[in-house]
Every structure is written in C-alpha cells, then in structure tokens.
Amino acid sequence: MKRARAEGDADKAHRQYKHLKGAQLPAEIQAKPQIMKRIDEFAMSTEAAALQAAAANDIDWLRKLLPHLRHKMADVARAIIKTAATHGFWEVFNLVDTWWAPEDEEGKEEKFRTGCGDSLAKAIEGGHLAITRDLLEGYDCDYSAGLDLALKLGRDHAAAEIYQSVDDPYMVGHLRWAARHGSMRVLKDVYDACWEESLPEAMGIAASHGHFEIVKFLFEKCRHQLLEVENDRDVYKRPLACAIMHGQVEIAKYLYANGGYADYPLDELKVVVAARGPLELVELFHKDGRRSNMLLTFMNAAINGKIDAMEYL
C-alpha cells in the first residue's frame, strides 16, 4: 500500500492559497473563464481566510493575509480578537492588535471607541488572563459586565485586573451598573469602596428598575447615611419617588413602610404619586387622612391624565 506523504510547508501554503479569492493563479488558468468561474464559486474571501487562520492559531498564514485587509481593518480586527480571546491565542491577539495600530491620535481614539465587543467576556470565561489584561488596557470594554462575570465564575485575578484598570477609586461606575442590572455580586464587592454620596443615586436606579433586593440591601446597610443625604436631593430623584414613577409598587411600599422618605414632608411625595403612580399607591399615601396640599395634588393628577387618582381624591 502506498503511504501518504507527510504534508510539508509548500503543500500547506498551496492548500491555503488555492481557495483564496484574489490569489495569483497561473495565466493559463486565468485565461479560461469557465474555470475561473468555478474557482470563484468555491473560493474563500481574504477576510474568511484570516478568520480561519486565527481559529487555527496559524500566525504565519495570518501575517501574510493581514496586509490585504487594510481597507476593513476595524471589522476584521474585532472578529479576530474575539476568536483569540475565546481560545486564548495571545500571539494571534498581539499580532492583530499590533497590526491595527493607527498612527494619528484620531485613529487611536477611534480604535479605542470601537471597543472589543464581547471579547472581554470570552477571555474571562476561558481564564485567559493575559488577553483580559490587554483588552482592558487598549479597548473600551464593558468593565462592569466583565466584573460581574469574573465574580460569578470565581475569576479573582480577572476581577482584580478590572479594578486596577478602571480609573474609578470610588467605584461609582460599577455601583451604577450593579444597581441598573440587579447584580448583587458587583454591588457587594464594591460597596465598601463607595462614596456615601453615591449610594442614594444607586438606590434610586435600583428602585426604578425594580431590583428590590438591592434597594433593601442598601437601605438596611446605610439607612442613616442615606436619609441624611436625601434631605438635600430633589424629590424626583429620591429612591421612593423613583419607585413610584416607574410603577415599582413592592419597593414603594417597602420604603414607605420603613420610613424611607427621610425628614421631608410627605406632601411632596403625594403630588408625585398622584401624577405618576398607580392608584394603589395613591390610596396608600392618603390613608393617614391628611388632606394638605390637595389642590396641587389634584392638579398634577389632572395634568397627567390620572382619572382614577382624580376620582379618588
């Protein structure tokens, strides 16, 4: 039996390029339209070939292809970087990152803003710390989403890299993200480093999005600090008002029942409830029998078309 010959470098190069659109074919072949048509039907684009080279961790092949893709540098780079991040191919990542190196400041800024899509998540999932670090340093990533994933998967080193990479000593950005997305993992992890002044805002964000667990955690942990800061805030920015305006009845009831409206008069909140809240909360806030500021309350209900509130009042 005839043994198969081992594939050498020349064979490999031929196998790669014979399926590549735009490859330099012999003149005799190019002169035959019917053959060229068949080749074009099955040929691979340069972009597809580059992605295949990246997935195979074939640095030499990728290096030869990249110069032909200058006209679509950003799109190609993002796709290849995601592949490298998924598999942990740092050499592929480094090659493409270096190749995608604008010379002017505007180009560099555009590269940073283009971001890395979900490549950071792929690198964290795979435990590829070197690529995680390089992505954080060179691209505009969703740091908080990456932190949430790192904490979820127990990737402590990745979480540490994120904290070091983000210029946010009081963790305000992470705090807001956690409140918006309902991530107790991130919230608890950044809580101790947070500014007291930023907690009411986070609580309002959580209340608006219906994240009861986070509202309850913040209120129980720092109730006195929150209420002290609350006195200086606009009524519409307070957590209880945020819950009312976004129809988060359970959170509104919890804050109301636990005195989560600081020392400011309830008259202001009654106006907010009448204008923006459901009837259930209108009834709750008026059950004390106090009828102060009724004209303003009624007018705000009317302006906002709250017929049920108007009938109740």
- Shape descriptor reads elongated
Q: Largest sheet, described in full? A: none
**Helix count from the secondary structure assignment:** 23
The CATH class of the domain at 40-167, by name, is: Mainly Alpha
Helix content: 55-70%
CATH domain fold name of the domain at 40-167: Serine Threonine Protein Phosphatase 5, Tetratricopeptide repeat
Distance from N terminus to C terminus (CA atoms, Å) equals 97 Å
InterPro entries: Ankyrin_rpt, Ankyrin_rpt-contain_sf, SecEffector_AnkRepeat
Pfam families: Ank_2
Written account of the structure:
There is one protein chain. The chain is mostly helical. It has a domain at 40-167: Serine Threonine Protein Phosphatase 5, Tetratricopeptide repeat. It contains 23 helices and no strands. Helix 9 packs antiparallel against helix 10 (129-138), helix 9 runs parallel beside helix 11 and helix 20 (266-276) packs antiparallel against helix 21 (279-285).
Summarize the structure.
The chain is an all-alpha fold and 313 residues long. The chain has helices spanning 9-17, 27-30, 33-42, 46-55, 59-65, 73-87, 90-99, 105-114, 119-126, 129-138, 143-153, 156-165, 172-181, 184-190, 199-208, 212-221, 223-230, 239-245, 249-257, 266-276, 279-285, 294-303, 307-312. It has a domain at 40-167: Ankyrin repeat-containing domain (Serine Threonine Protein Phosphatase 5, Tetratricopeptide repeat, Alpha Horseshoe).
